[in-house]
Amino acid sequence: xxxxxxxxxxxxxxxxxxxxxxxxxxxxxxxxxxxxxxxxxxxxxxxxxxxxxxxxxxxxxxxxxxxxxxxxxxxxxxxxxxxxxxxxxxxxxxxxxxxxxxxxxxxxxxxxxxxxxxxxxxxxxxxxxxxxxxxxxxxxxxxxxxxxxxxxxxxxxxxxxxxxxxxxxxxxxxxxxxxxxxxxxxxxxxxxxxxxxxxxxxxxxxxxxxxxxxxxxxxxxxxxxxxxxxxxxxxxxxxxxxxxxxxxxxxxxxxxxxxxxxxxxxxxxxxxxxxxxxxxxxxxxxxxxxxxxxxxxxxxxxxxxxxxxxxxxxxxxxxxxxxxxxxxxxxxxxxxxxxxxxxxxxxxxxxxxxxxxxxxxxxxxxxxxxxxxxxx
Length: 376
Ligand SMILES: Nc1nc2c(ncn2[C@@H]2O[C@H](COP(=O)(O)OP(=O)(O)OP(=O)(O)O)[C@@H](O)[C@H]2O)c(=O)[nH]1
Ligand SMILES: [Zn+2]
What we know:
DHBP synthase; Rossmann fold
């Protein structure tokens, strides 16, 4: 895990990383922010022309019905940087690339290999656009690459280990610190911070009041809240997150106490940088799900293993869950937490969030009938 964590650091800085899959050696680099010089260096070090790995969501946005989770697109040298971002995550690919170029790309696609899937997992974990430049290390370059690994200028990671980096490590979440923090809507609160084993994400459990967490006969009022900097902190009108957060605290207090898990899953797990990109795409007419797809992401990139681990750490087995999202209910049930009851939790509908909430209700199955009863 330690190597993967360091690899993510390098990828975020725009450096290449070596993926090792059996006998195969593949250099990988983020597409996001890849400058001409960096791409040329990758080409030189590998001794082969890089290819572009695209996720199945990005492929779908390009009009390709993918057979696997990803595919590899060989890049002719002159193509390498000129239209890389347009291919990897640009809007309106047909308009920007031209129909003929797109057809040629579709015809050139190759099945993804183990290192390609590992590369995309690393990009996601690094909260970068899920697209990668990959270059197989040529026989003639093996010694030079091995020397770079040996002198510490290049990091080598097992592809298999890298591919698992999104799964987290069940049962290894660390409870780090805690403090009493009175809130405007709930006087008696304890914030407990948990850290993921690789140290890259931190999540907070807010225990409101003094609920009987481990009592078998009661269901603990629970809110799973995914971070939304824009909504939670600034009261953005593009979503309903801030209001839901504050309503949840007040509601849990009114129910005599319970728990709110504040999860580091900004932008449904795609990170703030990508959420801002997605908002700009939405301004050109796409809905929230299609915008994420253009960037190469699925409808919802969140996983709830850490939430289950936090509940386990707090001794909670049965809950009354505040959500409109069926995926959250399913994820808890799958993690062995009994969802005894669901309680709806709404923010206010406005002209800016109407479209976002409609897409969640119509396309992602969120239970928002009550919100739209008046307006639709
Ligand atoms: N990718 C993306 N994420 C968004 C957008 N708008 C809000 N979000 C994120 O969506 C998430 C919403 O989190 P929650 O309110 O906990 O979850 P939910 O899926 O809406 O389900 P509920 O429990 O019913 O509220 C947050 O991580 C927000 O940052 C958007 O347009 N695009
Ligand atoms: Zn929000």
